[in-house]
Design brief:
The chain is α+β, with helices and mostly antiparallel strands. It is built from two helices and nine strands.
Length: 151
Amino acid sequence: MQHKKRLQNISWCIITLILISVLLYEWRQVYKSAKLVQFELTQKNLYQGAVTIRNKWELNNKPRCDEIAGIPFSYTAIGWPIVYNNGDLDCPKTWSLLSNGIEKPEYNTFSYIKAGDSVAYNTCLYDMDINNKLAIFYINDRIHIVSNLSL
């Protein structure tokens, strides 16, 4: 009788451990998917912020520079907002300007990649917490906000 009770307790422990293992595995999968969706939404929100600022440029008779939320910036020749600091892209201020106060995941680190003498190809690279990188750069006066680059 005692042996049967011990086997029953061990069986319940094994079943409980299996259930916990399965739940933890599933939780990791759900968490990873949620982070990827959040990353994609962040990318779209940043681009929408740029589009909104560009529309404001059109409506305000195409000024050369402007300021939003205490962030001074200029416009490219075709109206995309660009934030410079001593001739280089200002990555933290670019992020703040384009995010437009929308809830967003914070980037772990950012780096600035300068491609030789060309200002057109300089890039702000944001390292997100899910092993994805988001890049903001300008080519031919157009803003590009892309992810999963091989830079």
